[in-house]
Amino acid sequence: MRVFLTGATGFIGSRILPELLAAGHEVIGNSRSDAGARRLEHAGATVHRGDLDDPAGLARGAEGADAVIHTAFDHEFSRFVENCEKDGRVIRAIGDVLAGSGRPFLLTSGVALGTPGVGQFAREDVFNRDDPIPRVASERAGEAVAARGVSVAVVRLPQVHDPVKQGLVSPYIELSRAAGVAAYVGDGRNRWSAAAVGDVARLYRLALDGHRAGARWHAVAEEAVPMRAVAEAVATGLGVPARSLEGEEAARHFGWMAGFAGLDMPASSAFTRERLGWKPTGPTLLEDLARMDYSVPAAG
Known about the structure:
Blueprint: E1 2-6, H1 13-22, E2 26-31, H2 34-43, E3 46-49, H3 55-59, E4 67-70, H4 80-98, E5 104-110, H5 136-146, E6 151-157, E7 159-161, H6 169-179, E8 182-185, E9 191-196, H7 197-209, E10 216-218, E11 222-226, H8 227-238, E12 242-245, H9 247-254, H10 258-261, H11 270-276, H12 285-291
Parallel strand pairs: 1-2, 1-4, 2-3, 4-5, 5-6, 6-10, 7-9, 8-12
Antiparallel strand pairs: 9-11
Helix pairs in contact: 1-7, 4-5, 6-8, 8-12
């Protein structure tokens, strides 16, 4: 297939690209910059120039494609609500290009949207359309374009990591560096799911090759990593104490991250593994945190 890949030079997309090429697919990779375009050409992809702030221009990359994988996202988490709304606009614009064609459209969301209730593991068969989590905008937009004849499936992400970057943990590291303490909320028993970036990239390729309209896939290798364990690993790496915070003190410390820091977000990938034959083999989140070079800022 000829696949249009947004975010092709990004953290996850740059790993998906060689997965697709090795499987025999042609790739149209989106890039915002000349440097990114050169990297894509060197890797063997055709380049489309586009930007999330111009949804229609970005979506034109899908015009000659047989399928679309959408991983591009503005990861400035302090503007998370705004960026999720922007993602919804991009999904609808790509949907305009694909409408009525039945061509696969694989978009990206977060595992927390599959949580059936407090303390329960997120599942692929659950989607709360009224969830207050802002990333709901992506899946709502996916449903809207599916209603217009687009063959939509969703890959939901946990904390995706390598020794340089670890999803929300990366800004948490920088917050801890600046504050001189690696904090957790309460007893730190709230849990986050995680997966190594190489395993996540392979899942996108499997989800494309085994495409099922309406499917939701969970890229979860570790179902429930306690936040206290993350804090202690970061504390060791930075050489600062790990400490529990609560209430107003926690809110002041975490700032914009306060809405995430205490969330309990365990997630299952049992359905994904069974249906796609996905078997993650990469390192754990704590293993990558142990290998990280804390002398340099965490990747944004």
